[in-house]
Amino acid sequence: MINRIPILKALKDDRWVRPYLKHYKKTLILAIFLGILTFVCGGGLMFCAGYLISRSAARPENILLVYVPIVLTRAFGVFRPAVRYMERLVSHNWVFKMTSKFRQQLYDALEQDATKFNSKYQLGDILGLLSEDVSHIQNLYLRTIFPMFVAWGLYAIIVVGLGILSPLMGLWMLIVFALIIFAIPIWSVLINGARQAYEKNTKNKLYTDLTDNVMGVSDWVLSGRGKEFLKLHVNDQKQLFKINHEMKLFERVRDFLLQLVFLLAIVSLIVWGSIRFGQRSTYYTNWIAAFVLALFPTVEAFASLPSAVQETNIYKDSLNRLNNLPLTKEEKQKKIEIAAPYNLAVQDLHYTYPGTDKGVLHGINLEIKTGEKIAILGRSGAGKSTFASLLRGDRVPSAGSIKLNGIETDRFGDQMSKYFSVINQKPYLFNTTIGNNLRLGNENATDDQLWDALRRVGLAEMVQSLTKGLDTEVDEAGLRFSGGERHRLALARVLLQDTPIVLLDEPTVGLDPITEQAVINTFLDQLAGKTLIWITHHLQGIDKMDQVIFIEDGKINMQGTPENLWKTEERFRELKKADQGL
Questions:
Q1: Where would I find the ABC transmembrane type-1 domain in this sequence (predicted)?
Q2: How far apart are CA 223 and CA 534, in angstroms?
Q3: Cα–Cα distance for residue pair 394/477, rounded to 1 Å
C-alpha cells in the first residue's frame, strides 16, 4: 500500500517533516487538543440546542430542565469561537515556528552546495526549493497533517462515547466513520492521484512543446506546416481538458458518496435513538434530536479529508526534492588565524566538474605574493571564473592544491571573508538604504567611516545631494544608480571590509570606455598596497599590473610582466593593438 500512495513512500525515509513533528510535539498536541475541543464545543452547542428545542415543545416538570440547557447553549456558543481562535493562534504559531527552522535548515543545505548549483540544479529547481517547496510543506502541515489528527481525535470520541451507551452502535459508527476517514481518502489518492501525476506530466509537456514551437514558429510557417503546429497544440490541450474533466467528475462522485455516508450516520443515529429512547417516557424522546444534531458540526472536520489527502500528491515532489539535498554538516569549523604577509601558492592545479568528465583546469602553477597585482585573461569558457572560485576556496581542487600561507583555501570556509573580498560583474545592491548596503562590508562601521569610504570612491557629493543621504533607499538591485555608481558603491563596501586580498571578476563589463577607465583608475588607486587579482576579458588598464596570465584550454598559455610580454610575445602585441583599435 505504501508504494501505491506516493506521500507515504516519500515520508518513509523523510528528514524534513517527521523530525519537526517530534521536536514541536507539545505545541502540536495543544493545537490538536484545541482543534478537537472546537468541534466538541460545536457538537455540545447543537446537542443542548436540540434537547432544548425538543424539551420546550412539551410542558417541563421543572424549570431547571429548560434553564440548564439554555445556560449550556450560551456557554458552548461563547466557548466555540474563543477556542477556535486559540486553536488558530496555536496551530499557526506552531507552523511558523516550524517553517522558520525549516527555512534555516534549507538555506544551510543550499549554502554548502551553492557553488555547484549550476552543474547540479536547474534554475526552476532552485526557485522551487526556495519558495514553492516551503509553501508546500507548510500546507502539508496545515491542510493535511493537522486536520487528519483532529479528525482522528473526533473519531475516537464519537466511537468511544457511543460505545459506552451502546457497544453495538459504537461498533457500527467505527465502521461508518472509517469509510469517511480512511476508505474514501485512500480511494481518492489511488484514483485521482494517478490522474494528478498524468495531468502534471501533460501540462509540463504542453509548456515545453509550446515554448519550443513558439521559438521556432517562423520555421513552421516557412515550411508550410502552420496547421500542423496548431493541431499539435490543440491535441495536447484537449488531452489536458479531458484529464481535468475526469478529475472533476471523480471529485463530484466522491463528494456525493461522502454525503451519503454522512446521511447513513445520521439515519443510524435516528434509528438508534428511536429504539433506545422512543419506547420510554416523553422525557427520553428529547434525547433523539440532541444526539442527531450533535453530529452535524463534525461534518466540517471530516468532509475536507479526502481532498486534503489527495493534495499530498502535489507535495510529494517537494518532499523528494528536499530529501535529495545534502545533509548539513553539524561540526564546528576550526578557527584559522594567519598573519601577513599573505601569499597564495597554486601547485599543479587540476579541476573537473563533479559528476562529469569535463576537465576545466590542467596543471596550473602560480605564485601570488602579498601586494602583487595580477591580471588573469582568457576567452569565455577558458576556466577564469572557475579558477577564481578555487582561489576563494568555494571549490575543492580535483588534484593539486591552492594554499594561502600554507593552508588550503577550501578549509577556510566562512573565515575566508576576513582575507578575501570580491567585486564581480554585476555588484548587487539590496532594496534597503545606502548605509545598510555599505555596512555589509563592516556591520560596525560608523557614519564617518561610511562617508570616508564614499569620498575615496568619488560618491560622497552625489550621496550628499540626495534628500536622505545615507538613508536613501537604493531600490531593488540598486537600479536607481548607474552601472559605474553601483561598481563604486561595491568598492566602498570592499574598502570597509578591508581585506588583504581583493578579487575583481570582470567588474567593468557593460560600462562605456570612459566610465570603465574611470572605474579602473579608482580601483587601482584605492586598492594600492593590497593583493589584487583582476579577471578581465580585454587589456584596458593591463599596463598597471605586475603580472599578466593568459589561460587557454585550462592551461597557462602566456605569463609575465606587461613589458616582457610586449617584447617577447607576438600574440600579446596583436591582442593589445586590437584592444586599442589599432
A1: 29-277
A2: 50
A3: 24
Coil, helix or strand at residue 233: helix
DSSP secondary-structure letter at 473?
B
HSE value, Cβ hemisphere, 13 Å, CA-based, for 169:
21
Q: Which of 561, 217, 112 has its CA nearest to residue 120?
A: 112
Fill in the amino acid letter for 29: I
**What are residue 290's phi and psi, to 5 degrees?**
-60, -50
Residue 350's identity, in one-letter code, is H
Q: What is the pLDDT along the chain (582 residues), one digit of tens a residue?
A: 444 555 666 667 777 777 777 788 888 889 889 999 999 999 999 988 888 887 777 776 677 777 888 888 899 999 999 999 998 898 888 877 777 777 777 777 666 655 555 445 444 445 445 556 677 777 777 778 888 888 999 999 999 999 998 999 999 999 999 998 889 888 888 887 777 767 766 765 665 566 555 555 565 566 666 676 667 667 777 777 888 888 888 889 988 999 999 999 999 988 888 888 766 555 567 788 888 888 888 888 888 888 877 777 767 767 777 777 766 655 556 788 888 888 889 898 888 877 677 778 888 888 889 889 898 888 777 778 888 888 888 888 888 889 988 888 888 877 888 888 888 877 778 888 888 888 888 888 888 998 988 888 888 888 888 888 888 888 765 667 777 788 788 888 888 888 898 888 877 766 677 777 777 888 888 888 888 888 887 777 788 888 888 888 888 888 888 888 888 888 888 877 776 665
Partners of 536 in the β-ladder? 377
Burial label, 416 (beta-carbon count in 10 A; 0-12, 13-18, 19+): buried
| Residues 300, 40: Cα–Cα separation, whole Å | 12
* 135: its cell numbers: 509553501
**C-alpha pair distances (Å), 345 with each of 107, 494, 530:** 32, 23, 17
Distance CA 314, CA 245 (A): 18
8 Å CB contact between 372 and 547? yes
Which one-letter amino acid corresponds to residue 13? D
The answer, as to whether pTM is greater than 0.85, is no
The set of residues, in sequence order, having a beta carbon less than 8 Å from that of 138 and lying 6+ positions away, is 95, 99
Spatial distance between the Cα atoms of 478 and 483, rounded to a whole number of angstroms:
9
Give dist(CA 395, CA 397) in Å, integer. 7
The radius of gyration computed from the CA coordinates of the chain, to the nearest angstrom, equals 35
DSSP 64-112: HHHHHHHHHHHHHHHHHHHHHHHHHHHHHHHHHHHHHHHHHHHHHHHHT
C-alpha cell at 549: 596570465
